[in-house]
């Protein structure tokens, strides 16, 4: 695939589809209305998109203006985004889960002029901060009967419903269609397409400026790496489009190839929607895959007896079959026959719950534990792990469908350079590209840095932060620690997460946490130990496992006490802490821990919208409990 011959702006992608890939009456989007899945054709979508563009031009929106969205995934997001993109405006997506203070900061920092709002709760949130955002001129509720939710407070910004905007734009379209076409053609690949604000595990959120070229080059390079995406594929979208991973890996990939996008109703209804939509491709995050694995293992083994033996036998056969294929060998007649039987008895039932048509899933947004990837591989479900950041548009690497190395984030995509740099001396150990790939190459460990078409233009309004992130030679410093293993990028941890114990030993939390997360009794691990003599942790137990083992009522998890002190529960968790500690070096092992009753949450400011823990916030919030872990004898719990 020649990157130079492909559309280089976001609005050019959809124009290319209706010109060269699909007729206008081809289904483009699908969403569930009441109890029925409704398809939306390219023609229907473009009519709304053009109407919105006409309205935007009519009220004075011009190229370079920033327009915000705070809305869940759905067709309205696509209409609004495509409408602003084709007149050269800039998308500023805001996570619906952010606090009022963060929303106000982003609206003011970006100087957003309009905001599309998805539901009554978000509408109330915007009304509370709107008068503190002088650039804001319009608030557009995208739901019916929004008038009931208008506050008594007078607002400087006008309020107009999304349906009315489309109706007004439709009447204006004949007047502005020529201007829309001119504006679309005037967009340069180097123009900013969107501002995506980093989730801010530390400090103030920063708006990454991603250009049209950043986004489209990333799409075409990813498709050159994963060559099995076709125009007939159906993606099920459930990760937030306000995050760059879903934006690129679902939305823009589908715009490039002409694939259909179906929008899941919610995370809670995802399993049901998978069975209804029967997607061929979907993007996911490691935590979801871990939950699917836990549920499958529980379902397959909890009954015990013959059923459990069949399930475990099938997994062992799947593993042997996978090993043979990965080694480039023929599985042979006996193993082939056994695997077909295992698929019929066990694997097909699990696959059917995904709709039965999945070609593969792409995992991103965090490192996928090796054992989770291998579990799906044993089932015959391909999960391709990728790697990237908001600032890299995002894809830097992804596993190839025919050459997968579990526990790695895949081969470097075409057109960029990825290097490993010594953390202390800044010496670059190696520079790798797509073309330099060798399946047996391994490097030393260091910070991962990158340069090329995927690297952002910079941080909006933050030249000092931009200079700190992108050095004079054009290398963007990811802050991730990793190496090359079998030619693929392997992530070790975040530079900022690294713990240095009292004896100078470096402990990278992620691989240690992933070791303990193999336990079905543990849902989350937060390691502590920077400048301390030993490692301790806050453990989030598996709620399902606790209820199954101890018969606990729902009210147990709603109690006010932050930590669970029940001796039997603590001992039960400690059994698996001891078990999995044997896989780690002595200085990496958990010596003491507390069991937290509830998971860390966004509402409490403990995790980001992309589910990353805010280390400084947690350490400060639970400082007293952490000190107790070091005041007690290390062997009290273990």
* CATH fold field value of the largest domain: Rossmann fold
Q: How many DSSP helices?
A: 19
State the CATH class of the largest domain: Alpha Beta
The low-pLDDT segments are: none
- Category from helices, strands and their pairing: alpha/beta
CATH superfamily of the largest domain: ANL, N-terminal domain
Strand elements, count: 28
Measured between the Cα atoms of the first and last residue, the distance is: 56 Å
Helix content: 25-40%
Q: List the domain count as a whole number.
A: 3
What is the CATH architecture descriptor of the largest domain? Answer: 3-Layer(aba) Sandwich
Q: Kindly provide the radius of gyration, computed on alpha-carbon positions and rounded to a whole number of angstroms.
A: 25 Å
> How would the global form be characterised?
globular
What does the main sheet amount to? 8 strands, mixed
Strand order of the largest sheet: 7-6-5-3-4-8-9-20
Mean pLDDT across every amino acid position? 93
Report the sheet-strand fraction: 15-25%
């Amino acid at each position: 695939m020649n990157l130079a011959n492909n559309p280089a702006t976001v609005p050019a992608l959809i124009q290319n589809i209706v010109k060269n890939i699909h007729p206008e009456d081809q289904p483009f989007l699908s969403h569930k209305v009441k109890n029925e899945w409704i398809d939306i054709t390219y023609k229907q979508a473009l009519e709304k998109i053009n109407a919105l563009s006409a309205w935007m031009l009519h009220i004075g929106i011009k190229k370079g203006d920033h327009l915000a969205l705070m809305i869940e995934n759905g067709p309205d997001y696509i209409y609004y985004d495509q409408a602003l993109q084709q007149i050269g405006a800039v998308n500023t997506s805001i996570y619906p889960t952010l606090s009022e203070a963060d929303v106000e900061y982003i609206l003011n920092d970006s100087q957003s002029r309009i905001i599309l709002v998805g539901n009554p709760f978000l509408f109330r949130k915007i009304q509370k901060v709107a008068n503190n955002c002088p650039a804001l001129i319009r608030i557009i509720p995208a739901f019916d009967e929004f008038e009931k939710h208008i506050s008594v407070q007078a607002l400087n910004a006008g309020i107009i419903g999304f349906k009315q905007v489309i109706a007004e734009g439709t009447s204006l379209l004949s007047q502005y269609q020529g201007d829309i076409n001119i504006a679309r053609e005037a967009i340069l690949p180097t123009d900013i397409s969107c501002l995506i604000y980093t989730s801010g595990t530390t400090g103030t959120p920063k708006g990454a400026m991603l250009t049209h070229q950043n986004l489209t080059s990333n799409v075409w390079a990813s498709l050159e790496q994963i060559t099995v995406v076709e125009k007939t594929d159906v993606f099920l979208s459930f990760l937030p489009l306000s995050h760059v991973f879903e934006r690129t890996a679902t939305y823009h990939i589908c715009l490039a190839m002409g694939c259909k996008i179906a929008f899941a109703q919610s995370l809670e209804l995802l399993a049901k929607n998978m069975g209804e939509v029967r997607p061929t491709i979907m993007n996911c995050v490691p935590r979801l895959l871990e939950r699917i694995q836990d549920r499958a293992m529980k379902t397959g083994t909890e009954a015990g007896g013959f059923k459990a033996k069949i399930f475990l036998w099938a997994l062992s056969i799947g593993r042997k079959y996978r090993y043979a294929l990965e080694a480039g060998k023929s599985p042979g007649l006996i193993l082939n026959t056994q695997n077909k039987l295992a698929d019929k008895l066990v694997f097909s039932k699990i696959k059917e719950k995904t709709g039965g048509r999945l070609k593969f899933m792409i995992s991103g947004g965090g490192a996928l534990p090796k054992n989770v990837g291998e579990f799906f591989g044993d089932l015959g479900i391909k999960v391709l792990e990728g790697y990237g950041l908001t600032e890299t548009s995002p894809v830097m690497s992804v596993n190839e469908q025919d050459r997968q190395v579990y526990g790695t984030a895949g081969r470097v995509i075409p057109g960029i350079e990825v290097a490993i740099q010594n953390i202390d001396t800044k010496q670059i150990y190696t520079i790798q590209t797509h073309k330099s790939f060798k399946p047996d190459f391994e490097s030393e460990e260091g910070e991962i840095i990158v340069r090329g078409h995927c690297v952002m233009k910079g941080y909006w309004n933050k030249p000092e932060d931009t200079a700190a992130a992108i050095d004079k030679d054009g290398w963007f410093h990811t802050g991730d620690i990793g190496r090359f293993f079998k030619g693929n990028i392997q992530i070790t941890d975040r530079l900022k997460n690294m713990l240095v114990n009292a004896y100078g030993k470096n402990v990278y939390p992620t691989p240690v946490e992933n070791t303990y997360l193999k336990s079905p009794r543990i849902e989350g691990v937060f390691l502590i130990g920077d400048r301390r003599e030993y490692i301790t942790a806050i453990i989030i137990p598996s709620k399902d496992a606790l209820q199954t083992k101890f018969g606990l009522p729902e009210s147990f998890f709603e109690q006010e006490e932050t930590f669970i002190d029940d001796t039997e529960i603590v001992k039960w968790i400690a059994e698996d802490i001891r078990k999995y500690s044997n896989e780690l070096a002595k200085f990496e092992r958990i010596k003491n821990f507390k069991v937290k009753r509830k998971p860390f949450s966004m509402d409490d400011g403990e995790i980001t919208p992309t589910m990353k823990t805010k280390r400084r916030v947690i350490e400060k919030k639970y400082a007293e409990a952490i000190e107790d872990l070091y005041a007690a004898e290390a062997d009290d719990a273990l």
